[in-house]
C-alpha cells in the first residue's frame, strides 16, 4: 500500500504517512491510520447535555480521547470536541455501553455512526492549519459528526437524504440543545450552492468519484475530505487552490456506506 499516493492539477500538496494493521469490520471502519502534524487552537463552546451513563460516560470519553491521542489525533480542538460531545446520546440505548469503543455502530436504515477515530481523523485532516468559519457535512446520519464539527466552526450545515435519519438527527440536536447546526433534508450530492462557499466539506459516504459540484462549492483555500471508490475505498483530500485549480491527495484505505443521489422517505 502506498503511504502517500497522490495526483494534482496544481499547487504543492503535503505528505501523509500511514500505519497499517486494521481490518474493516463494517462500514465507516478504518483500515489504517494517518498521522498529520496539526496546530491546536482555542476551545469551542460546550455542547453537553445530561446523558444516560452518568459519571461513567465521562470516564469512558476521557479514555476514548486518550486512545485517540495514541492513534495520532493531535489537534486539541478535535480532542476537546470529542471529549465534549456525548456519543452515547446519538446511539440506541441498547448500544450506549459500546458508544466509546473504537467501532462503528448501527443507527438504522442500513447506516452507521462512524467510529470515533474516523470522525476525529477526517476532521483533523480537513482542518489542518485552518480555522474555518463555515463547514458543510454530507451525510448527517444521527448527527454525531455534525455535533463534533460544531466545536470547530461557528457555522455548520449538514445534509441528510434519508427522512428517518434527518428526523433522528433533528431530534438529537433538540434533545441536546444544539442550535448552531443548520440541518437540511435533501440530496447531499448537490450540496448547498445557495450557502456556498464553504471553508471545509466533510463527506461521510463513498462515491465512485467526488461530485464536481461539491468541489466548486469550496472556497479558495478550502478543503474537502471524502472516501472514494467502490469495493476498494480510500480517503481523498482535495484543496481548492484557485478558481479552477485543485490539489488531490489519496490517503489511507477505509470502508464507508455508499454515497447515493436523491432522497429517501
UniProtKB/TrEMBL annotation:
Residues in the active site? 114
Residue runs in coiled coils: none
Q: What is this protein called?
A: Protein-L-isoaspartate O-methyltransferase
Give the CC-aspect GO terms: cytoplasm
E.C. number, please? 2.1.1.77
Molecular function in Gene Ontology: protein-L-isoaspartate (D-aspartate) O-methyltransferase activity
According to UniProt, the reaction catalysed is: [protein]-L-isoaspartate + S-adenosyl-L-methionine = [protein]-L-isoaspartate alpha-methyl ester + S-adenosyl-L-homocysteine
Q: Which family does it belong to?
A: Belongs to the methyltransferase superfamily. L-isoaspartyl/D-aspartyl protein methyltransferase family.
User: Superkingdom, according to UniProt?
Assistant: Bacteria
Where does this polypeptide localize? Cytoplasm
Q: Which Pfam families match?
A: PCMT
Biased region (Polar residues) positions are 10-21
- Principal location: cytoplasm
BP GO annotations: methylation; protein repair
Q: Which UniProt keywords apply?
A: Cytoplasm, Methyltransferase, S-adenosyl-L-methionine, Transferase
Q: Where is this region: Disordered?
A: 1-21
What is known about what this protein does? Catalyzes the methyl esterification of L-isoaspartyl residues in peptides and proteins that result from spontaneous decomposition of normal L-aspartyl and L-asparaginyl residues. It plays a role in the repair and/or degradation of damaged proteins.
